[in-house]
Amino acid sequence: MSASALRSLTRPALVTSSITTIGTSPRLPRVIPLYLPFCLSWKPILENIESRFDSYLSQENQLNRQKIADNRVHACIYFIQPTGHSLKQIDVEFMRRLHTRVNLIPVIAKADTLTDEEIIKFKQRILNDIAHHQIQIFQAPIYDNDDEETIAENEEIAAKIPFAVVGSDREVRTADGRSVRGRGYPWGIIEVDNEDHCDFVKLRQMLIRTNMEELREHTNDVLYEKWRSEKLVSMGVIQDSSVFKEVKYVVFL
Questions:
Q1: What is the pTM of this model?
Q2: What is the pLDDT of residues 120-175, one digit of tens each?
Q3: Is residue 251 part of a domain?
Q4: Engineering a disulfide at 76: which of 25, 102, 162, 237 sits with its beta carbon 3.0 to 4.6 angstroms away?
Q5: What is the domain extent for residue 124?
Q6: What is the 8-class DSSP label of residue 221?
């Protein structure tokens, strides 16, 4: 790592990340504001995620498994500053630290500060950086039995990643008299729930309607199992991989 990159990781700054737990209480997102040096900014979030894995593993090892509470984090919405350039070194390092532990969903914050053309170019630069650094972001799986409508819906959502969103908790009045959630400017109004204005609707659709179950499954079957295997190996527990191999039964007639 270069000296300039190292300095960028050690400058104190405000790092705000939103971790939303899907499953336990989707209506109550956990938002963790962090005032930390860049070089430590991901640590409390990573520790929080892994502590929930620890809690789940402890419940799995109990005799009574009927009432296991799943408090694992199933999605991490990572907000990216709308610079219009590319990912910052802190963004790359942050996501590299988290992508093996949680479903990462990159989001461009304050997208109303960019033009439509700038958003398109910025999204492509972000995706190029993510691919270059081999960061795994959540992608909805495609199943063989999916119908055309489901496939088309997933493709529409995937095409919007990273989501460019605008946030507002206030209602404003449009020129045609409608009351909408959005932001008013001298040149017009940005509507949060208008897909022609931002990607908030598609982000919400992914999280709580279309891919909620897929987020849970990927956490349980991939992310948690990987962490669990690493945890057991670190404790000196050797697993017999043959136990988990799929057995093909041959029927002789």
A1: 0.77
A2: 999 999 999 999 999 999 998 888 888 888 889 999 999 999 999 998 888 888 88
A3: no
A4: 102
A5: 3-244
A6: I
